[in-house]
Design a protein that fits this description.
This protein has 102 residues and is of the alpha+beta class. Helices cover 24% and strands 37% of the residues. It has two helices and five strands; from the N terminus they run βαββαββ.
């Protein structure tokens, strides 16, 4: 579970797949609050396989802080693995929200 490295002042977007005990423990709410705290846009949703999927976009240093928060998870969760990939930027997003389960 290593965070990506971003250049100073860079604007990036990441896709994250989080596995472990991450459903039914407030994980999506936790990610929404963390994303808003760091000024990120994007989305989060539960997946049918028990994992949580999300995309987050913003300044590099804020994404690093967010990734660290996701890797720690909320108090009642147990994060086993976080797969992180840089993906293309999305335009027109205004906030970070919960999407329907997939």
């Amino acid at each position: 579970m290593a965070s990506q490295t971003y250049g100073p002042g860079s604007h990036s977007r990441v896709h994250m797949l989080v596995t472990g005990m991450v459903q039914g423990v407030g994980f999506r709410y936790f990610t929404v609050m963390a994303a808003r705290r760091y000024g990120l846009t994007g989305w989060v949703r539960n997946r049918m396989d028990g994992s949580v999927e999300l995309e987050a976009q913003g300044e590099g240093i804020d994404l690093e802080r967010f990734e660290n928060a996701v890797e720690a998870g909320p108090r009642w969760s147990r994060v086993e693995h976080v797969d992180i990939d840089v993906v293309p930027l999305a335009s027109g997003e205004r906030d970070f929200s919960v999407r329907s389960d997939r």
